[in-house]
Amino acid sequence: MAVTLFAPDEFDALHTGVGYLVPNMEIKIVKDDGQLAGYDEEGEALIRGPNTFKGYYRNPEASRDSLEGGWLKTGDIVMMDKTGLLKIVDRKKELIKVKGFQVSPSEIEGVLLENEHVIDCAVIRVIRDGQEHPQAFVVPGDDKVTVTAIKEFLEARLAAYKQPTGDIIFVDAIPKSPSGKILRRMLQQSASKGIAHL
């Protein structure tokens, strides 16, 4: 289902956008309070068009959860700039779509924490040329932790599509809420600014 695209003469230098809405599709961005988002404001993307599915086969409950007055609730948290470029900021459901596979950030995090040289970590999704990739933030426990060492550790334990192809970034700490929940939105913001390896 095509929703956005880049024309041959269009280019996003920062690689943060997923394209511009195709002519036969409609989108509305709804904030947490139910109001429509303005330019550069975050909200969930609801889409409508001739190629939007009509519902789940023999599953009316799932259809009601996913459709709202003919609009498909994507679960993507997005923003649109004044040029019409759509940017995916986050996902209500944290699964990352990699080459058609669903990748769980917590699974990658669990494997990373098996490494005795890793104190803490977090995995988020990033967009590279319109494709989703896992990106790992790692708090190293000592100088034995290198990007190469982390890659080799993960390659021996996870399928190829679960590898952090977005990047592996070393940080001093993982931002968390008072209850210990990883603040992935803060990591998304850091990733969009192009954090370098420490």
From TrEMBL:
Q: Which Gene3D superfamilies match?
A: 3.30.300.30, N-terminal domain of ligase-like
Q: Where is the AMP-binding enzyme C-terminal domain?
A: 107-181
All copies of domain AMP-dependent synthetase/ligase, residue ranges: 11-57
Official protein name in the record = 4-coumarate ligase
Q: Which GO terms describe its biological process?
A: secondary metabolic process
Q: Which UniProt keywords apply?
A: Ligase
User: Entry's Pfam families?
Assistant: AMP-binding, AMP-binding_C
Say yes or no: keyword Ligase present.
yes
Q: GO molecular function: any one?
A: CoA-ligase activity
